[in-house]
Amino acid sequence: MKNSAKHRLISALSVMALVSACSGGGSSAPGGGITAVVTPAPSPTPSPTPLATCSLRARQDWAFAQLREWYLFPETLPASLDPTPFATVDAYVDALTATARAQNRDRFFTFLTTISGENAFLNSGSSAGFGIRLAFDTSSRLFVAESFEDAPALAAGIDRGTQILAIGNTDTSLQTVASLVASGGSAAVTNALGPNTAGTVRALQISNGAESRIVTVAKADFSLAPVSSRYGAMIINDAGRRVGYINLRTFISTANQPLRDAFANFRANGITNVILDFRYNGGGLVSTADLIGDLLGGNRLTSEVFNLTAFRPEKSSNNTTKNFAPMAQSISPMRIAVIGTGSTASASELVANGMLPYLRANLGLIGSNTFGKPVGQIALDMSACDDRLRVVAFASQNANRQGNYFTGLASVVEASCQAADDLTRPLGDPQEASTRAALNYLAGQSCTPIAGAVATGQQGPASVRAPSQQLLVPARPDPMQRDLPGAF
Q: Which of 169, 15, 41 is nearest to 105 (CA)?
């Protein structure tokens, strides 16, 4: 599998059971959303018997065959498992991967999605919704963590920091968020928001301060800007020190040119310190992660390794090595601050891990510990049924062969600083808590490390304090919500 011929993609699942039991790890709820590292899908070995129908049994049998063919942890699969008791393909896949999940190696990273829905999002960011990310704080209050441009919510005056107090089909049927959580937890809130289909209308009681108001918003089709036009790329002047700031929402192909443009501006202005704000970034295309590596590799040699992908031994012919390929827009960073949270996964973690051997303590993790997904999926398609099975099939490693960060990047980075996600200020604001901590780190100031981080760079435990809020993630996220955790 040649790097030039295929894209690698990573998809991950956020495992946060959001509600009152917010904790800094994952939950047992299947399919919370977070995408991460991906690789080009090798062509599967043809099935011995062509699939003639899209019956449940045929789809289940196909899924089991793909897992036996490609799964990174084949020793964990049952020799056989009767699919009859399982009402869906998803439930059967979850049962097949239960052993690896219990070992913390596949936390619902292997899943079934649709070809059409995933392609629409990965190729252009196309999706339907209000165009917001939602998060619960530690008191189970619901806030907007981010609002996307050219989407219905922002047009209605709903932006980062807005609190949603109540939800209803109309302004006369409002239910408070508190009552929804009390009756059914985060799932009740997700259900109240309705399906992510264009035309779904909801009345929302919102507050941006002392007063509240009711707005009616209809979900609509929109194309996500992966690099915000408001704060996605800029140069921050911090007491005379100029710092490049990138906030990447997700790794999709439409991010590539804005990233090149941003780094060209950094290079023209002599930027050598960079903040990569990946706090909500669940991952996506590894080809975009590779691009960021190249843009950060102005002083790297083409013989130096950015990342490696390793399949199971019998599939090792698919292994790849990505070396740095500096380009006209590349910079030579002296220090990098990566802002992360429990929603930071996969391709986001790959970028940080790939730069770690070269920067060591000059790469700092800011905020809280990341999700912990050093493995990636390939896409195996059953096109007649619009089924795409994302199968964990490879491990991602850096030049030092580090890649076992299932407990998050705090277990491998040599420098880290605890910081809150401050919803009272815009993303990229120099006084926003995580951005401020990143600027302080880049300036060489001391800080409190993320709990569980190890100064030696060796693998270690990574129990961390709970972040100030966690994103709202449905049990079965759609393609948008896998790549944009918390999106509705």
A: 15
Distance CA 371, CA 410 (A): 10
Mean pLDDT across 174-188: 97
Cα separations in angstroms, 359 against 9, 262, 281, 352, 363: 25, 21, 22, 10, 6
CA angle 248, 456, 344 (to 5 degrees): 20
Phi, psi at residue 427, to the nearest 5°?
A: -60, 135
- CA–CA separation, 396 and 455 (whole Å): 22
Token pair 């190696």 is found at 105
In 103-240, where does DSSP find H-type helix? Answer: 115-124, 152-155, 177-193
Q: For 424, left (φ over 0), alpha (ψ -120 to 50), or beta?
A: alpha
Query: Which residues share a beta bridge with 375?
Result: 395
- 387, 114 Cβ separation under 8 angstroms: yes
- Averaged pLDDT, 429-435: 98
Directed axis angle between helix 286-295 and helix 347-359, to 10°?
Answer: 30
- Flag the least confident range among 180-189, 256-265, 276-285, 448-457: 448-457
DSSP 383: G
Encoding tokens for residue 346? 């996969």
> Which residues, in sequence order, are bridge partners of residue 455?
none
Tokens of 270: 């002599």
Q: How far apart are CA 380 and CA 385, in angstroms?
A: 12
End-to-end Cα separation, the chain, in angstroms: 36
Predicted pLDDT of residue 209: 84
Q: How confident is the model at residue 478 (pLDDT cuts 50, 70, 90)?
A: confident
Output the pLDDT for position 249: 97
Give me the amino acid identity at 335: R
Question: If you search the block for the tokens 């997904």, which residue do you land on?
Answer: 373
Other beta carbons within 10 angstroms of residue 257's beta carbon come to 11
DSSP 404-468: --TT-GGGT-SEEEE----TTS-TT-TTSHHHHHHHHHHTT---PPPTT--TT-S------PPPS
Phi, psi of 244 (to 5 degrees): -80, 135
Which pairing describes strands 335-340 and 363-367: parallel, antiparallel, or unpaired?
parallel
pTM for this entry = 0.86
For residue 195, the Cα-to-chain-centroid distance in whole angstroms is 21
Among 264, 246, 147, which Cα is nearest to 204's? 147
